[in-house]
Structure formats: structure tokens, C-alpha cells
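Exercise: predict the fold of this chain.
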Amino acid sequence: MRVDVRALGACNRLAERGAEQAAGALADLTGTDLAVEVTGASVASGEDLAEAFAGRESIGVSVGLDGGLDGEAVLAFDAANVGALLSLLPGGASVERSAVTEVGNIALGGFLDGWANYLGKAIDMTPPRYFEADGAAVLPDGALAGDGVFLFESRLDATTTDLDFSIYMLPDSGPFRDLVVGKTAPAATAGAEAGAEAAADGAAGGGGDAGGSTAVPYESLSTFASLAKRGSANAADNIAMMTGLDATVDVSRLRFVPLADVPAEVGVEPHAGTVFELQGEPSGYLAILFEEESAAAIAASMLPSEPDEPLGGMAENALCELGNVMTSGFIDGWANVLGTSISHSPPEFVHDIGSATISPLVAKLSRRQDYGFVIDAAIQTEGVQARCDVYALPDERELARALDRLSET
């Protein structure tokens, strides 16, 4: 099976539109505005997902899907926020279970409407099932079973209250397989088909196939997701080597997202770290970012004496040195397995609000593509409370070529 990156971009856009419809339905029901923060497709193993969702307590609703799309969809929110939701609904806490079920049913119905319109086939939902779940048990059935699955995730944030929702959809093979390999649903309406074509063209940067194929062997994509995890572990080992602090990878995922959404994920809190341009195949960009306090703490642990300024010249040099070693460890594994040569530029120190640190990288890559595979990893240190986020943004066409060669070996 070969996954067409442009077709996956069209699917991602369908999911984003569905999330917007779900946000509208929830806004009508609760009286509070909700915005779609981000929509993306993760390629992850069951083990990765279990680690990513460890420690979460969720409440929500799941539905089975049949017809135009098979699989399962879930609406979930943090169990700690159930009071905020009930305060917005008629009946309050006395109708907790039924209220949550109704909210989930309405939101998921809105989410799936766009997919049904595109496919030209009805998507039947089973009766909603209320759940209370710990960790990755919130995810659709089957998400933890495979070596690599596509999991669509949308996050909806309330603008006036502490109430955030997540929608997860795990499609089965069949109709979805036809979508991601680039086939057009034959029953789709002309308007929907044109919209999907536009989405696909946008995902490819509007350049057709001039820059090469964007079809990726699915098995190689799963392999690359494993490589991303290994690179994150190498980066954590390098932190430990240079700081003397034990470091562990909290989460490492390969996601397919609109590049324009990446800066918002980093947030508006001040960050410091290093960014690099990657040369070779695949080329692209890599950012190693710490929240401001974490950056100062990590830098201090590397210096023989306390710096005059928490993030002054001495700290900047220390973070650049650390970034250099981490980046080499991160990309060496890619090059070895892909059979390519990848080098990186000297580190560029950045210290700004989070979104501003990565926006220039996204802007450069967006000249060639609207969507991309983003590797994000969270690395946690012990002894000094610090967290590091690694964002790798490879060129999609060059990545596709490298993965294609990998499938032939």
C-alpha cells in the first residue's frame, strides 16, 4: 500500500472541516465559542500511543462507523473539566451521563458530515457509548494493536471557559485505504470532488508532480515513525551525557499536519533553544526548544559557575553546544537507515515567544508545501525540572523518495 501525501492532505482537510462543524454544534449546545486548535493524522504504534496518553483521565462518548467509512470515532475531554461542561448544560450535574452522551452524539455527527458529503455515501453511527477511561483506553478500539496506524486527532478549545475537547477517529481499511492511496470516491459529488482536488493541490504546494512523487510506502512510513522515536532517545541520551541529568522521552510521534498549525502548538510562552537547517535527503528544519525556565536550568547545569544572566551569552553558548550534539544524534539514525547523507547548519540560538521561534522555519518550508510530516518529541529531565520539545520538519518529496528506496531494500 502506498500512501499519497497529497491525498492524505485532502483527508486531513476533511477532518479539519469536520472538527469545525463539531465546534459549531458544541457552541450551539453549550453557549460558549469553541475554536479548532489543530487537526492532524498521527502515525504511531500502540506502544507510542500508550505512552502519549499515560496519566490522562477522560470522559466522553464513542461511536462505531459503518457505510461510507468504517471504524470508530471518539469525543473526549479531561475528567477534571466535567463540572465546567455540566454548568453549561440544562439540568447540570443531575444529568451528567445523558448530557455527555448527547454532547458527544451531536459533535461526532457534525464531525462526520463532511466525510459523508465527500464520499457521497452515508456514514452510519452506532448508538453513542458513554465511557470513563484512563490513559490510552480513551482511544478507538484497535489503536493500540498495530505496529503503525493512522489516527486522526482534532482539539477544540473553548475561548471563555476551561473546557477543551478532543476528537479521535481511527478509520478501518477499505474506503479510507482508497482515499489515502489517491483514489477518488466514485460516488462523490462534483463539488465535493473539486474541493478535495483543491485540498490535494494545496497539500502539494500547487506544483503538481513536477518535484517528484509524493506517494510513500505505508510500511516505510511506519519504519520512519520508529526512526523518529529512536532519534528522540538518542537526543535524550545526549542531554544526559552533557548535563549529567537523567533524561527520558515522554512522547515521540510522527504526525501529518497543516504546517500553519505548528507555531500555535508551541504556544505563546517564552521559549529558548536552537534551530537548524538540514541538508541532504531529506532536507528540512529542526528545532530544539525549552520553555524559558527550563532553558536556564539546563544551561546552568552545564556551566562550571552560575551565569551572570540566566540566558545570557554563556547560557546561549551552552544551549548551542547541546543543540549541536542532540541534532547530530537525532538525524544520524535517519541517514543510516535511509541510506542517505544528512548534515545540518550551525546552531541558531532563538529566544522568543514559542510560536515566533518556529514560524520562520514553517514559512520557508511552506513555500514548497502546505502540509508536512512533523516529528515532535518531549524529553523530560530528572533532578532539574526541565522539558525539551523537538520539532523536525522534513521536505515531504525528499522524504517520500528516501522512504521509497527504503521499501526496495
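Check your answer against the key: Confidence is low (pLDDT under 50) at residues 184-210.
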